[in-house]
Amino acid sequence: MSALPVGSLWKEYRRYRSGLAGLALLASLLALSAMAIALVPLDAYGQWNNPSYWSEYPKAAPPAWVNYITGLKLPEHLVLKDPIIDRSAIGRVKVITHTFRFAFPYEAFPDDFLFKFSLKYGASPPLVELSAERPDGVRMLLARSAMPPRSEGSEARAYDSAIFSTDRNLRVNLANHLAERLGILASPDGISPERMIFAKGGPSMADGGTGVLKGDYAFQARFFLLGDQDDVISSSLVIGGKVFGLFGTDDLRRDLSVGILWGTPIALSIGISVAVLSALIGLAYGVISGYHGGRLDELMMRLNDVAYAIPALPFLILLALSLGRSLLYVIAYLILFGWVGIAKVARSAALQIKAAPYIEAVELLGASSWRVIFRHIVPQLIPYAIANIALSVPAAILAEAGLSFLGLGDPRVPTWGQILHDAQLHGAAARGLWWWALSPGMMLALSSLAFVMIGYALDRALNPRMRGI
User: Fold this and answer.
1) Which of 162, 202, 273, 392 measures 20 to 30 Å from 184, CA to CA?
2) pLDDT band, residue 154 (cuts 50/70/90)
3) Three-state DSSP class for residue 251
4) How far, CA to CA in Å, does 292 sit from each of 105, 285, 298, 359, 372?
């Protein structure tokens, strides 16, 4: 491999379409990393293993784009957290209205719905009223309830509550709606609230037998507050569906897009840091060994042979079990075995360069051995090191994924390997939850492919025997 000038490297590299494709793929991965850091809340990343954080999401739901492939129009699970807020007053009573508007163009009914809210109030308990407006203009009262009273003179404090579609009071209100509007007497226990709200009109609204009424819906919550310090802290509406998001959810209701997107910068950080540090250590080790020669060279190469002979995977498993599974530990374990191969190649190159006439001339001029090594030998090996780094990144990414898949990665970090481990642990393949394993597997394949194409293009550009092939 010749020492191609760095300035000419790009000119030679861009002749290879596979290398340009690899750079385009790498740019996409970097864009995904930036998107994860900028758009995905850090709180969601930190709460990856907190089940309560994901309680509003569906369990084991496929991604929403399956609707465009199958044409089934399965209802999408909606988590609405930004209501339209309106404030008014009726005498001394403050009225705060939170309105949630959404489109429902699906063929099937939602599974359920949940309205969650948080209030701050003192001694006078507020009243909460929830209603739904259908696309045909029909308005239904769903719930009306007062909050629990508090002791006289107490300060305003937060109170969290929720209205679920299975509440009996909600069913009673819908039964009254049927009786008043259509003259239908129905038992509250026989009413399906989500079907009645989303069904087409007619006598069978109670069970949704006439199909789904498509269009724009509005759920409106009115809070009647009596105290000066009383206020609505937050509210959210969940419409239970069967599909969700870009990557779906897992058995623990976690949004897989958080793990997939955040896994991208984590995987790139692991792969690049392991590859770069391993290359630097191996390069320095091999050049020092080859340049000095003699007993030092013999000792260093025997140590290199010992490290090369150790089976990496069993030893990595042993280290992870004995020392810990922190992500920094995993990176250190991979570096421990990553420098061995490049050290041998660097030693062979150093032996050849050492015999060059200009090296002898520099030594006769009184240059120290460190100056010769780092000024005249190492710079010639940098192009090879760059190619080696590009080819080593996918190996490091896959090694970390393999450890995580075996349950030896950092469980606190949502890496692609950890997602695959969870999928295997919950029997995703046997249960047909294909999206759980497909997304992280595809990301591992694409990230590896990007660096492999870049590495092979660099190898061709730097190797005079392969240029132009």
Assistant:
1) 162
2) low
3) coil
4) 75, 11, 10, 13, 11
Residue 131 phi/psi, 5-degree rounding, is -140, 165
Query: What distances in angstroms separate CA 189 from CA 145, 170, 280, 432, one per listed residue?
Result: 20, 11, 71, 34
Q: What are phi and psi of 326, to 5 degrees?
A: -60, 150
What span, in angstroms and rounded, lies between the C-alpha atoms of 244 and 435?
11
Residue 194 identity: E
CA separation for the pair 174, 192 (Å, rounded) = 9
SS3 call for 79: strand
CA-based angle 151:157:162, to the nearest 5?
Answer: 100
Locate tokens 């049927």: which residue?
A: 178
Rounded Cα–Cα distance for residues 467 and 16 (Å): 10
Per-residue model confidence (pLDDT) at position 358: 84
pLDDT of residue 66: 93
| Residue 6 banded pLDDT, cuts 50, 70, 90 | low
What residues form DSSP beta bridges with 116? Answer: 162, 236
At residue 282, the 3 state secondary structure works out as helix
Q: Give the angle 240-245-247 at the CA atoms, nearest 5°.
A: 125
Q: Quick check: 232 and 223 in contact, CB under 8 A?
A: yes
Q: Quick one: DSSP state of residue 402?
A: H
Q: pTM, whole model, 2 decimals?
A: 0.85
pLDDT tens-digit map of 364-397 = 888 888 888 888 888 888 888 888 899 899 999 9
